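As the next step, I selected for study one protein, both as residues and as discrete backbone shape codes, as given directly below:
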Amino acid sequence: MILLGTAVNALGVLGGGTLGLGVHHLLRRGIPERFSERIMEGIGLCTVCIAAGGILSGSKTLVTILSMVVGAVIGEWLDLDGKIAALSRRLEERFAKGSGGSFSKGFMTATLLFCVGTMSILGSLDSGLRNDHATLFAKSVMDTISACIFASSLGAGVLFSAVPILLYQGSITLLANVVGPYLTETVIAEMNTVGSLLLLGLSLDLLGIKHLKLMNYLPAMFLPILFCLFL
């Protein structure tokens, strides 16, 4: 049952998201647009708060800068944002036609929020190395509540973030013996800093300040593993 923690986390997101989606469909007709806008702004401000807690977790500024710059180049070259956006549109056409683009925003928002952070990494390592799922169980409770809230505002896209959770946390868990020695406290702190910067960028989008192609920055999340070996 090495993947139990990750499985519970993904199921929690599905359950919470389904409940939130039910609320979304039940109340959507009666919620004026101005209330929806305030809810989105509130989520954006909460994201700023989450990001602020992790941005200063690292101490190697050069690692952060190099990770963001090199990661952006890699992501732009691979056009990750375009590919993921295209996948989101196909899923939207099949499962949530007529959602007005909120599906893609819900999917990307929830994916970043649920996969970025030290609990995802440390919890997955604990599951893989010690078969201890306590951290991921605690994360599951928080993610379930968050999924309910986000799905009630952003729709069905939030539910599909369960797939990246399975892939991301499941990979770390299964490869824990291989990647564990490289994921030192310093590396995890730097990864958390980069991930928190991505959350800050996400908050700018949710607040309507600036749209960033955040998925093109995803490679930056993993580059501290390399740069911390030399810096």
Q: What stands out?
A: The two ends are 37 Å apart (CA to CA). The mean pLDDT is 87. The chain has one domain: 4-227.
